Amino acid sequence: MSVHIRRQRATRQAAARRRLVVSLGSVLALVAALFGAVPAGSTPAAATPLVQGSVAQYGVATQLNVPVTMADGTVLRADVRTPATAGTTTPATGSFPVLLTQTPYGRGGVEAELSWFTQRGYITVSADVRGTGTSAGSWSPWAPIEGQDGAALANWAAALPHADGKVGLYGGSYAGINQIMTAAAVGPNSPIKAIFPLVAGNDLYRELVTMGGIPDSQFMSFWLTYTGISHMTAPLAEALREGSTQNILDTLTLEIQHLGGVAQSNLPILTGLLGGGAQAYDGTFWQQRRPADMLASVVANGVPAFLVGGWYDLFQRGALMNYAGLQNAWAGRPVGAPMTADQPVTDRYQLLMGPWYHDPRQDPTLDLPALHLRWYDKWLKGIDTGITGAANPNPLHVKELGTNRWLDTRAYPFTGADPTRLYLDKGRTGSAPASANDGGLSTTAPTANGSEWISWTANNSPCTRSTAQWLGGFIKDPACTDSNTARETGTGSLVYTTAPMTETKVLAGPIGATLYAQSNTPETHWVVTVTDVAPDGSSVPLSSGALAGSHRAIDPAKSWYAPDGSMLMPYHPSTQATTSSVPTNQVVRYDVEVFPTFASIAPGHRIRVNVTTADTPHLSATLTQTPGLLAGIWQLKSGPANPSSVTIPLAPASAFGTACTSVCP
């Protein structure tokens, strides 16, 4: 009887562990989908067979939970997968390059995609970032020590049995940024020979944490909460699958320690950001985590990089800035400067920019595994896969929104797109009859001064593309993502529209909006959205930008200007020292950075600028900003005295005539 009871108890315990694994797996799948890891058990899209390059011919020999000791004694944990003789788990003869990824979302989540590369002749290593998973230590998002850890892991991986000493870095989102940090920290003549940062940022403060000093409460609140959850659930799920009671208890003990570290890290970031504390400004914390400042070191260390970004991604701005920064560093120019039309470029640094949100794998036409493989085969195995050289002379590859064209070009800002200043003008055009003002937008400056009222609102319609964009694009409704009309009415919205285009134009690059306004409050919030208006009146959002009035100060040395002196891409320092209250009852200038796009505007279509005072749920005021916004009623000015305008790069369709054939879908 006692044996029977013990068997029943063991059966119930095993079933409970299976139920818990399923529940934890559901949470992990959501977090992994949102932030760049393929959920455990899923398989990457089948790669297109290559004329040249690695093919699937190996099995996989796996070592789990391998300890790796860092310089300060902290032990990280990694899984190692080695090519094996086909049909066995015995390591194959010969030596192989290594692909390394570092993730805070649980290293088990990348098992399927890394095994795909192992079958093609790569040793793969997945490591938990310190303070996450089963790695010891304390976690702080993108802490500088992660770059040092990455360098140590790369050196360790290069010396693994069967390794040939060459290492490539792999991963997207957080892991993509981690690649840049590692490639910058590793030093010259390192084992790292190539990186492939997928949807990686350039400036976390300006792209992820805030937009123009207004907190990204939608993304940051969600992300900081769920990273804390994933840090515990991922390793616990792995321990439960393994089934050892002692392993489960050891893992639980470690994760309780991690939970305390996450609380000490994530909670101050969130409360500081939303409360108007130090994290709400571009201070030391965010400056230490700025990939832009690491790009020169990546180039100096001789590490080639293939970047992938999306026009609707969280890092819509950052992908292009990373490309320009790497090319500038290679050419000996300032990293943050706009590229010039005639500067030399190199195929060592490439960008594929497509119509994607935060997970380009949602596009069934994009074969990311094959693209990765071509890059790694070139730099780690010396195979000519046509991804560099004469077959690919233009290293900037972009999808033109609104058409089926994939194009190759070289410089950012885009050569051939002339910055065109369009002036806001009071008066009804008939193109937006439901709007409060229905104003005009023209290259001709208005001759009469105008003033239009707009009121601050804490919330406006969430039915917009920005809601989907800053949730990674994983929850979206075409009725909202493809239409801006819900935002174009009411007292908190003003609309300015051009006459119909007489020929196709390409709107290509960063956009600068210069607004002159008078307010009755010591704080203002401005959101500028640029749309493509079709003859039937539909208004498709192309890009947006925002600015808190208190963050209006400009750093001229870091801003980009059009030839006529108008603002093309303003740079706001956004430090505590440079922010200041808005003078009330005076006309004040605000320069708003609107993130870049690349879109075809067809004949008969119009360009529209929609000015609002909120972007719900993407942006929300800090606790310190909110009192200065209450009861805000502002006057947006136009005319010769206060020429509010937007500077938009426009080009004829023929300006971009080189079709992308080497790497584009």
From TrEMBL:
Domain Xaa-Pro dipeptidyl-peptidase C-terminal: 373-647
Keyword ATP-binding: no
Keywords assigned: Hydrolase
Annotated InterPro entries: AB_hydrolase_fold, CocE/Ser_esterase, Galactose-bd-like_sf, Xaa-Pro-like_dom, Xaa-Pro_dipept_C, Xaa-Pro_dipeptidyl-ppase/CocE
SUPFAM superfamilies, A to Z: alpha/beta-Hydrolases (SSF53474), Galactose-binding domain-like (SSF49785)
MF annotations from Gene Ontology: dipeptidyl-peptidase activity
NCBIfam families from the UniProt entry: CocE_NonD (TIGR00976)
UniProt protein name: Acyl esterase
Native species: Embleya hyalina
